[in-house]
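Sequence only, no structure available. Ideas?
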Amino acid sequence: MRLLFAFSLLLSSAAFGQAGYQIDFFVKGWQDTTVNLGYYMGEGTYLKDTARVSSKGAFRFDGKQKLPQGVYFLVMNKTKLFDIVIGEQQQFRMETSADDPIRNMVVTGDVDNKIFFDNLRHNGERHQEAEPFIKILNDSTLKPDQKKEAREAFNRVNDKVVTYQNQLVDQYPKTVTARVLKAMRPLKSPELPKRADGKPDSSYLLKYYREHFFDDFDLADDALLRLPRPFYAEKIKEYLERLYAPQPDTIMRAIHLMVAKAKKNPETYKFLVWNCLYNYQNPEIMGLDAVYVLLYDEYFASGEMDYWIDKKLKQNVKTYADRLRLSLIGNTAPNLIMQDENLQPRSMYDIKKKYTVLFIFDPHCGHCRQETPKLV
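Reply:
I predicted one. Tokens follow.
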């Protein structure tokens, strides 16, 4: 991150043709201050560039290398001000005012940001239109039949939003704005086929969702990593937890399907594998820690992730995987040699019984001292 001085907002034709990025701003009401350009990544936010605002509200962010695509934001005095999108076109100009930056935003030289702010303004207008109906729908004193007209009216407003956004997706498919809107589309339920007995085949629904879950969500689009909410990670989590049984082998097959889609982009490949590893480091469901071990063996021990991971981090992942490996469900537990009631050493492996119950307790724990005699 480096300090940039304010420049004139007038861009020459040569400036628009150069490599890298150059974003000129004029914000009425800002003067003689510092502003940062930041970006989202997963659940975090990071600063990318810094500029000095002139006495007239002009400033510029620029660099020799193009910015990774996604949603960025402007921040001043640790306060986030508004979002912008960074797409293919990275030389453009934005003008607005401090009192209402979204409503007053004028974009020159970039279709992506133009439709981004058009969509924000359209959403704001539709929200105002829907407010009276939302108030009725949230009124707990009203009966469902008294809310019918409000619900129908609200649905009509929502349909306007969906129609408008679908038009943007169809008209500007390569923009970040359109790709994000498309990725956020809910998956529609199909009409169920009939079984031999004429009844709907409910088992078809799960198969359909698994096959079409990522139809509108490109797992190889790294712009989807840089959103105000961690939508990429949420999508992974939803896919694994809602559509697959919580069994290690089943989960790994699902991860393989996602990897096949994400692998063509090194950044999304890295994020997907690391996100899955992180999620199964301390899983809520017993036995799924095996997924962590399987992920380590396949993607880290094999060298697949060596293009980005450093030796220290890789060793930490290995150490944790090897520690989990010793206590995975279904594996033989490590041998324990302890004294029996006669103070003679006994090996757990020497006990030749169909079932062995190993009860471990703390002799200094009051609750343990109370409950242990009952078990014995």
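The two ends are 66 Å apart (CA to CA).
Hope that gets you unstuck.
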